[in-house]
Amino acid sequence: MEGHADFCERPLGPVLGITGMALHPSSIALHDLPAHTLVEAYRSRALSPVEVTHAVLAHIDRWEPHLHATYLLRPEQALEQARASEQRWLQGAPLGALDGVPTTIKENIATQGDPVPLGTAAVTLVPAAADAPPAARLREAGAVLITKTTMPDYGMLSSGLSSFHALARNPWDLRTTPGGSSAGGGAAAAAGYGPLHIGTDIGGSLRLPAGWCGIFSLKPSLGRIPIDPPYTGRAAGPMTRSVADAALMMQVLSQPDARDSMALPWQNIAWDQFDAGVEKLRGLRIGLLLDAGCGLPVEPEVRAAVLRAAQLLEQAGAMVVEMPPFLTQTMLDGMDHFWRMRSHVDMAALAPERKALVLPYIRQWADSAAGLSGEALYRASSQFHLTRVATVQVCSGFDYVISPTAPLPAFAAELPSPTNDPLRPLEHIAFTVPFNMSEQPAASINCGYTASGLPIGLQIAGKRFDDLGVLQVARAFELVRDIQNPWPLPPAQ
User: Fold this and answer.
1) Are residues 255 and 317 in the same domain?
2) What element of type H or E holds 58?
C-alpha cells in the first residue's frame, strides 16, 4: 500500500525496551512488543502500524479458538485504523501518545455504534450513542482499537462465565479461569493480543484477572480515570504486561471528561516519571497484609510468594511490617447483600423471558435479596462506609500496603466463583474490595508461580490520590522480583 514501503525500506534501528536498554524490533515477535517500544519504532519508521496490526490479528487467530477473549473482533476496521495511523506517522503528525498501538476495550465500556451486552444474553442489543470516556480518550490518542473483550453477566463474577459470550479461559492453563469481570482483557494481555488493554473494577475486576493471568493492572483512585456511568467504587484502568505501558495509558486515560460526576479534578501528573528506580523503596514503611480478616484462607503457595515479595522489598531498603486484618465478615456480607438487592431490582424490570436468559448463578444470587427488609438493606449499605473508614484508618500508618491479590490461584474455568455458591459469592475478594470503597489506588503485579505454573498476584495499595507512587513502587518491584516465566504460547495447531 502507499506509504508502507517507506517504513519497510528503512533499516530496523534499535529502540528502547521495558528496561530502557536497546531493543531491536526484529528480535521479538511484533505482537509482543510493548507500547512504548512501538511508538518509538513508528517514529523512526522502523515499524509500521499496519504490519504490527496484521501481526496482532494473526496471533489472535491462533489463540482465540481456545481463549474466547474477544467481542466484536473486526479485523478490517482495525486495519483501516492502522492505515490511517501509518499515514499520520509518515507525515510526522501522530494524533497522540498511543497512535497506531493495538488496544482492546472491555465490552461494558461503550464504543459508538456498538451494542453493550454487559456479558448477559438478557440485555437488548442497542448501538451505543457515543464512546464512553475511556474509549473516547483512546481514539483521540490514535490507538488502534482491535476488539472489545468479554465479561461475565453484569460483571458480577470473578470468572469468564457468561450467558452471552463463550467461556473465556486462561492462557497459562486453559482449564482455569482468567478471572473477572475483566475476563477477556486479562486473557488478551497475557496471550499477547497487543500491548494495551482496558477493563473496569468495582471489587477487584481489574486486579483479580491481572493476578491470575500474570499481568499488571492499576485500579486508580476513584475518579482518576473518568468513566460513564460512574458508580461507588467503580474504576476503569489499564491492563498491560509492564508498568511502563500502564503509565503510558494513564497519560491518556486520565484526561478530563465532564460526563463523570465523580471525577477528580484533572491534575498534570508526571506519569512518565513512573520509573524512580529501586531507590523508591528505600525508607518506605510498607504494611504486609496476609490475613484479610474474612473470606477464603490464603493458600500456602500464595502466602509463600507474597512473603518472598516482602523479602525482596526489604532487601531493597523498605521496612515491611505485618499488619492486622481489618475487614470483617459483616462488612463483606453487607456489601454483598446491597449488591444483591441492586441486581434484584434491575432484574425485576426485565420481562420474564429475558430474565430467564441470565446466568442461573446470577439469578439465584439476585433473587435471594427478595426478602430483605428496609432495615436489613440500610444496615447492609452502611457497611460500605464502615469498610472505607477501616481501610483508611489501618493504612494511614504505612506508605504502601502489600497483600495477595487473591487468596488462591486461578480456579476451574467452568466455575462462576471459587466457592461455586451464589450465597457466598465474595469470599475471594476480601483483599481487593476494601480499596474500591476507600477510593485508594491499588495495583496487581505478578510475584511468582505455583508449582503447576499458574501466576500469583501481589497487590500494592497506596494512599488516596497517590497513583503515581503506586506505579513507582510497582516498577521498583518489577526491577527486583525473581525472573519471570515466558508468556504462554497458543496450543500447537
Assistant:
1) no
2) helix 49-67
Q: Is the dihedral of CA 272, 276, 281, 282 positive or negative?
A: negative
Do 218 and 305 belong to one domain? no
Contact 105, 148 (CB under 8 A): yes
Considering 251, 273, 295, which residue would you say is the last residue of a domain? 273
Helix, strand, coil % in the chain, rounded to nearest 5: 40, 15, 50
| 90 and 120 co-located in one domain | yes
Return d(Cα 437, Cα 424) in angstroms, integer.
20
* Co-location of 249 and 298 in the same domain: no
Q: Which residues contact 405 (CB under 8 A, 6 or more apart)?
A: 204, 207, 208, 210, 211, 431, 432, 444, 456, 457, 458, 459
**CA angle (274, 277, 279) in 5-degree steps:** 125
| Range of the structural domain that residue 110 is part of | 18-273
- List CB contacts of 344: < 8 A, sequence separation 6 or more: 366, 367, 369, 370
Q: Which residue has the cell 473516547?
A: 136
pLDDT digits (tens, 9 = 90+) for 149-184: 999 999 999 999 999 999 999 999 999 999 999 999
**Mean pLDDT of all residues belonging to the chain:** 95
Q: Average pLDDT of 216-236? A: 97
> What is the band of 374 on the pLDDT scale with cuts at 50, 70, 90?
very high
Tens of pLDDT, residue by residue over 298-356, are 999 999 999 999 999 999 999 999 999 999 999 999 999 999 999 999 999 999 999 99
**Max Cα-Cα span within the chain:** 72
What b/e string do you get for 302-321 counting C-beta neighbours within 10 Å, with b at 16 or more?
bbebbbbbbebbeebebebe
Residues contacting 65, CB < 8 A, separation 6+: none
The mean pLDDT of 185-193, rounded to a whole number, is 98
In terms of Cβ atoms closer than 10 Å to its own Cβ (0-12, 13-18, 19+), residue 32 is middle
Of 240, 273, 306, the last residue of a domain is 273
Answer yes or no: are the C-beta atoms of 178 and 134 closer than 8 Å.
no
What count of residues does the chain have?
493
Written as nine digits, the cell of 89 is 506517522
Omega before 254 cis (within 30°)?
no
427 SS3 class:
coil
Side-chain-side CA neighbours of residue 246 (13 Å): 32
Half-sphere exposure of 9 (CA within 13 A, CB side): 6
Q: What is the CATH number of the domain that holds 446?
A: 3.90.1300.10
pTM of the model: 0.95
Average pLDDT for 194-211: 98
Q: What is the C-alpha separation between 164 and 279, in angstroms, rounded? A: 47
Which helix (H) or strand (E) is 89 found in, with range?
helix 75-90
